[in-house]
Amino acid sequence: MDKNTWIGFLLIAAIIVGFSMLNRPSAEEMAERQRIQDSIRIAQQMEAEAQQLSQEISAQVKNDSTSVSSGQSDTETQESLQSRIAAAYGSFAPAAQGEEQTTILENSKLRLHIANRGGRIERAELKEYKAYGDTLNPLCLFRGDEASLAFTIITANNRILSTDQLYFEPVRESSVIGNAADRQILTMRLKTDVEDAYIDFIYTMLPDEYMIDFVISPHNVQYVLAQNVNSLELKWRQLIPQHERGRKFEERYARLQYMLAGGDIEELSESKADSKRETARIRWIGYKDQFFSTVLIADAPLSSAEFESVPQDAYTRYVKQYETKASVDFDLTGQNITAFRWYFGPNHYNTLKAYDDNLPNELKLHLKELVPLGWKIVAWINKILVIPMFDLFMGWGLHIGIVILLMTLVIKLIILPFVFASYRSSAKMRVLKPQIDEINAKYPPEKMQERQQATMALYSRAGVSPMSGCLPMLFQFPVLMAMFWFFPTAIELRGQSLWWAEDLSTYDAILTWDTPIWLLGDHLSLFCLIMTVANFGYTFITMQQQNTDPSMRFMKWMMYLMPLMFLFIFNDYAAGLSYYYTLSLGFTILQTMIFRWSIDDKKLLAQMEENAKKRASKPKSGLMARLEKMQQEQQRLAREQAKQQAKKYR
Hints:
By secondary structure, the chain is of the alpha+beta class. It folds into 3 domains: 33-66 and 76-226, no CATH class; 230-370, no CATH class; 379-605, no CATH class. It has 16 helices and 20 strands. Helix 6 packs across helix 7 and helix 8 packs across helix 15. The longest helix is centred in the N-terminal third of the chain and has 44 residues, at 27-70. The chain starts with a helix and ends with a helix. The relative contact order is 0.06.
């Protein structure tokens, strides 16, 4: 290597060394990192010890029962265990032992089971809904170990405890607060060995509501907790059971979402394992399924949250597992309570939207964003057109099949002018086909520029724009996409039957098999099959009206392949969506036949020729004159270049 190469290597090495030294953490930063790592290690060790001790306590309780029944006792073992409990739990030692029980809160919509171990909700049932395949019992969002909620606390003797290892005592208070005589209140009290020092978990349930209040209220705990405690660590984990028939679709719509204090909605991936650390303050966290959600709403936004979402194996009864760790503000004196709200309910747009009604913008929860309605313009169409129209027709007490039929008819009437404009443009192009063929015969492919200029001149004289047929379709597309997003997320379709389809919110299989077929899966949906046949019919009618160029035969066959592709795409989709598309295609075919009958090609051509004569008699505008002059100049330059090339190769 030469001298310059050696100098280059040395400079690179010097830059790397200098960069490393400049970015080396200071002694204070290294000490802080070590302190954090030590704290994490100690906390994990204490948590493991507490879990082991909790297991020993449970085993001892069983042994005590056996000993009593047999007349035996082991005083030394019991004393040793009690001393270990006192050392491990400090002032919370009285709450280390207990018998697991549950207390029920219930209204017309919810039935909640609150466990005394951990003081948490261990079972949540939606009384108005059923899971697929279970028509007897209410739909259960979670039960038992499928969900856990715990808050980490630090005792005065610097022991780290988790509330899910401690036993609370239920205290039912008066159901009368102010004028709300039917309000239910349940207090789960975590007692200590200090008289009049405890922590309350207070649950308040209103009638006919999916949302309940949850408050953490400390009382004189400054004597039993570490003095520097100003926050609690929240740990929330939940498995999401499969509630619907179509697992693939349910997995697609199940995701962890949360709202930042500023109003932005964030989410984790729905298709793969994902995790995220959020440093911004968080207003609510939603564990979402296709049609139902469990949402934890914090009155004082959470901070320093970590989220994790893990898809579950297909052979299990679970779709996803979500987990959250977050920091919760906590006031030892109890002057500032830690308040939450829980939402256990359906992903129904109007139900969720009602919680924001009459609230100022800075307090709005935007829970309605749990219902996916598509991109901004598509969601806007759903919110101002599709959902109000659907609610209107449903309010008339009509059958769901009639409701979708009326929606289809209204939407077709709305986009009718665009469809007619598109069809009229296609008809103009069709009647000009003989003249275009003459231009193609006159100018061979080698003179493509002259061919294009002649074709555009023909279009100009006839008053036809090739884009005039595309623009109307562009206006229709957002409406079509709005319906595409609406039907799979409309919980009103869930459990609604139509003819052979038992549930319009999922696929309507007429044939099933054990081994999945590539792209098609393990079933064939009848509404999807009918939609495919209707799509073939529409494609056939459309292609018959177009005198396709022989060179474009491949594209013609591609048009016939599109309906077949839709069969594979929509086979897993909601039967209600396939039913809507079938109706829409039927109306489209009828419109096409009416347009074809009402538009006479000969009269249209005569009208176009008459319009061309009128335009020819008018003086050309300055812009058109300049464009024509530019075209002539381009033709002259092209001819000169061709002559020069010919001379060059002679």
